[in-house]
Amino acid sequence: MSWTDHTHFAGLDWAADHHDVAIVDAHGAVMEEFAFAHTAEGWRTFADKIAPYPSLPVAIETSQGLIVERLLAAGCTVYPVQPVAAKSYRERKKPSGVKTNQIDAWALADALRVDGQQWRSVHCDSAIVQELRLLCRGEVALIEQRTALVNQLIDTLKDYYPAALEAFDDLTAACAWAFIKRFPTPQALAKAGKQCWERWLRNHRLYSDKLNAKRLEIFAQATQLCGSEPRTSAKSLLATSLVDVLTILEKQLKTFRKRIEDLFAQHPDADIFSSLPGPGQKIASRLLAEIGDDRSRFSSAEAMQCYGGTAPANHQTGKRGRNPNARMRRACNKDLRAAMHWFADLSIQQSPWARIYYKQKRAEGKTHVCALRCLGNRWMKILWTMWQTRTAYDPELHQRNQIEHGSWVLTLMPSSS
After folding, report:
1. pLDDT, tens digit, for every residue of 26-36?
2. Distance between CA 70 and CA 47 in Å, rounded?
3. Cα–Cα distance measured from residue 347 to residue 378, given in angstroms and rounded to the nearest whole number
4. Which residues contact 41 (CB under 8 A, 6 or more apart)?
5. Which of 20, 244, 275, 407 sits a CA distance of 20 to 30 A from 196?
6. CB within 8 A of 415, min separation 6: which ones?
7. Helix, strand and coil percent figures for the chain, each rounded to 5
8. What's this model's pTM, rounded to 2 decimal places?
9. Angle 127-160/229-266 helices, nearest 10 degrees?
10. β-sheet bridge partners, residue 35
């Protein structure tokens, strides 16, 4: 159904236990206003209420989750709205500052009626991509939890056991966790003795003579700087508890990674994303998960660049005149932007042109993050073409295209002769 065929428009203000809905006609007159519970019975009520309005377009302040899935299952076309934009639409309708759930729903419905033809609706990817996206985002959430726990463990060790931090600079390593479990306090470490230390290092395959000599020296002086007995007793229990949680979390991360790898291998676009230089399967799977496999989703490379947050957002005022200020794009898919950041960083190591492009941007005075975002913007344009044509990355073809278009990157590349 084309946009001009729609005769009614809805806004849904969602909450944890209930949702408010407003439906307006093409002239803005309110046709329905109701609320329903977030239960199976409530959603059946919603389906009955919207039955007279087939393919009803619905504006809502989210683009994912169970609510969006239920709307799609009910035959609605879902248009996600940024919360900041939703607030502006409400203030346009009620400049006095009045706010209710029903007003929010009505403001969304009328905004969709007036401006919705320019909005992007939620696209349905394949079941594999939907699961892959949720798994990849779940994996990132677990990694963030691991980082928080490691930071807490570092703070705990600083407070009573500085020797452990000095001996193991990477607290994400399993051997560091095993050390804390085996020797939870400086006193336990000192009591074990040198032979026990050496045996423990060998059992955990820590064979560097130079590094182990330093560690043995640190172990021997561990009790010279440590917490008091009450502090050590309490903090050691916290440290070992954190290690237990981290061990379980690491096991779950491996389970997530195995499932992600299996799904990624099943997808027909896996070879396209795997052909990119640098990302490896972990980042390639995240790129596929966030970009999806619906080719109609992005009509141009610019659309994908804006969606992924690599394209800058211009900010022009009367004072700046013809010299707008380019800013980082905030309204975007932040998961895709993060994946592109990691991919761009890794591509520097394997792609000569990417390395030169990055160095040139740094020479222009851009920060490391900004230079990677610029590089990611270039990669996003290449990736869009690969994605649309279903072709793997070919560095030779890319170089021929650079020559054909007179890319400035080629002038900075060392001569092959």
Report:
1. 999 999 999 99
2. 10
3. 12
4. none
5. 244
6. none
7. 65, 10, 30
8. 0.85
9. 160
10. 20
